[in-house]
Every structure is written in C-alpha cells, then in structure tokens.
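Quarterly update from the structural biology core.
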Amino acid sequence: MVDYSIGYNVIYAVFSWSVADEAYELMRSLAQKHKVGFFDVSGDDGDIILPDGIMIK
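Predicted structure, tokenized:
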C-alpha cells in the first residue's frame, strides 16, 4: 500500500517501514527508467539522484 501526492514537478510516495527497502529499490529503478530525479527524503543519507544518474551526497 502506498500514499502519494502528485504535483506539477513532483510525485511524493509514502510506504510503510515494513516495505521500505523494497519500495526504495522499485522507486529508484522507476526513476531511472523514466529519466527523472529521485530523492529519498526519509533515508539516513537522503540520497539525491539526478535524471542523468549522478548521485549528490
């Protein structure tokens, strides 16, 4: 199950902690497939991956 909000330049998806690792991998994969950026807002490191695959730390 996922709760999400869609804006003009953003899709914000919220998953339960029990599926966090699986959801992270799926969302990151879909972002790469569709050539959009990815920001893991609740991760310890807060991964930011640009559409070209460059990771910002």
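Strands lie at 2-6, 11-15, 38-39, 48-49, 55-56.
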